[in-house]
Amino acid sequence: MEVVGCFILVVILFLVAVMSKISFLKWQKRKKEWERKPYRDFKAENKARYERWWRLRYEFEELKKSERFKKWKREQWICQKKRCAWCKRLIGLNTPYTHVDHVVPLFYGGTNATKNLVLTCSRCNKTKGFKTRGYNNKENGSGKERKGGNKKPDWIRENRYNKGLDYIRNRR
């Protein structure tokens, strides 16, 4: 009986070793495929995307320091009826809970143009994050479903400082 138990144990260990070797060989094959050209191109594309994102983030931080931006923010707050662009909750003008959000995130090709900027509450901006589509399908306070993807909500009227702020941004 003990001989049969030892034999079964040896067979199980042998099968485990064979399976480990097979999975290791599969991993090596995948690694070689990843090192080929398409994967290198993907890495280079993402590197360029990150560099663009960092450059635009720096530009946006510099833009936020300008006096024109403060005027634009106040006017945008009035244009949005003092409400978050996504959930329509009341927001303050200069509170830590009011964020300037890029409708199309910079990482996905968005710009710092005023047509791509809205004021949001911190909760909506943090929830949205890098997302582009699908976030606007959440229900708003009135119980109606919001439609649309990567665009400003239709209920926000035009800001009179849009052109001036875009001019300052493009002049740099």
What layout of secondary structure does this protein have?
Blueprint (H helix, E strand, L loop, with lengths): L1 H33 L2 H28 L2 H13 L18 E5 L14 E5 H7 L33 H10 L1
Antiparallel strand pairs: 1-2
Q: TL;DR?
A:
The protein contains 5 helices and 2 strands. With 172 residues, it is mostly helical.
Please explain how this structure is put together.
With 172 residues, this protein is mostly helical. The protein has one domain (42-171): DNA Binding (I), subunit A (Orthogonal Bundle). 53% of the residues lie in helices and 6% in strands. The protein contains five helices and two strands; from the N terminus they run αααββαα. It has a two-stranded antiparallel sheet with strand order 1-2. The longest helix is centred in the first third of the chain and has 33 residues, at 2-34. It is elongated. Residues 134-148 have low confidence and may be disordered.
Quickly list its features:
172 residues, mainly alpha, DNA Binding (I), subunit A, two-stranded antiparallel ribbon, 2 strands, 53% helix, elongated
CATH C-level category = Mainly Alpha
Question: Percent of residues in helical segments?
Answer: 40-55%
Q: What is the number of helices?
A: 5
Q: Reading side by side through the largest sheet, how are the strands ordered?
A: 1-2
Give the percentage of residues in beta strands: 5-15%
CATH structural fold name: DNA Binding (I), subunit A
Largest sheet: 2 strands, antiparallel
What is the annotated CATH architecture?
Orthogonal Bundle
> What is Rg?
27 Å
Approximate shape: elongated
The tally of structural domains comes to 1
Give the termini distance in whole angstroms: 85 Å
Question: How many beta-strand segments?
Answer: 2
Order of helices and strands: HHHEEHH
Regions with pLDDT < 50 over 5+ consecutive residues? 134-148
Whole-number average pLDDT?
76
